[in-house]
Amino acid sequence: MISQRPITLAAATTVGLLSGTGYAFSSWAPQLSDRCHLSALSINLIGIAGNLGVYVMSPFAGKLVDRFGLRLPLMGGALCLFLGYFGLQYAYRVEWNHGGIVLYFFCFITGIGSALGNLAALNAAAKSYPLNRGSATALPIASYGLSAFVFSRIAHFFFVGHTERYLLTLAITCGVGLFLCSLCIKLPSSNLQENRRTRRKSFSTRDDEPESGMLLADGTDDEAEDEIEAPTVIDSVILPDTEAEVFAEVTGWALFKHLDFCLMITIIGLLSGCGLMWINNIGNNLVALYRAEVNSLAEMDPVVLERLQAANVSVLSLFNCAGRIFGGVVSDVAKTRIRLQRSAFLLGSAVIFVLVSVSAYHNTSSSNLIYYTSALASAYGTMFGVGPVLTLEKYGVKDFSFNWGLVSVAPGLSGNLFNLLYGRIYDLHSDPVTHKCDVGVRCYRDAFVFTAVGCSVAVLCALTLFVRHTREARLLAKRSGT
Questions:
Q1: Keyword DNA-binding, does the record have it (predicted)?
Q2: Fewest CB atoms less than 10 Å from the CB: which of 12, 95, 213, 435?
């Protein structure tokens, strides 16, 4: 008989894949903009609406998952994704020109659906494998980043020149897929005595370590038993054996009393803002550069342009996925083997973001854009591979969905700011009637001045966080005599 846990993990990974379609925004946004005669600012506002749905609603989605379990959020996510993409498909078909509020709403609810699905997937993976939470959550985290590659490849092979059908496919695939996964995901019912035996076995080779980090002292329901089943992080691959720490459960406003949390949320907010601006505007960047290269609107080949978009979105997704795996797995190895703090990976990501911003300011070739996309996506994925693990390590698993949801508010705010700046700058260089810009990189490059400054601030914050974590680790090692 097949165990329920692998089924749940497979379903959670599928949910992550279906929930990450927001990263494929640039695979259909330029076509929607042309079809509905939208300005760069308007199409950015549509992207911002999606980001708001994902990030600003994440704390509420997280609280819903923590309070009511998984099935209800997953079914709600399925409904939101279906209605959102179906509405966008309808708007494309009828060439909607009655204002952008309806388009903003449709994209906003796709974001809500993504938030519900993603947080439910992470929660299901973590609670299904309490002894290996780091490894288990890596799968839905990675598949979330891989989503854009999968769907951009689908668009490239089956829907070139058929954006309406592509949007309809997104609606059906995401809606039906999440609904079916909600029927497959079930947290295992654990026997308390068996859980204690499992815990003793996991500690049998580590007699020198205290059983710290216990979340609950008692419990009566299945979900509570899952929490009792293991310490927060010690028996997981998340925390090295030599650095056992006692973590108290912290949530809500109390998090903002911790300087480390404030530094982390600032770093993730600033870097994500730059990343979301890039993700939402790959299509606009390519259009501007390609139009300048061919010297006229008449010479532009829409098929070539769509292939360039699909290639960039695919690279974005692949390197985003690889970065998430790298941030989780390699940071585990680095912390265990050489005691390098995970915040070092945030620092490295911030430096890469600065370099990409400076390079994008000077780049004039549409074919070279893919290299900057790969570098930025790697840094972006690494940041999101490390961020949830840092949150889990420091503040516990009991309210993890809500805590990570709070961190996720920052990208929503900064992403909106950077996207608005980009749209405003692009429109200033565009024809006021056609909304077309034909001055190449000058259409948008001033936006990267702002991202370079913001990411430089993130570098300073990441350096401060790294120094603090390194100092704490040394003090802990000194006290424990290791």
A1: no
A2: 95
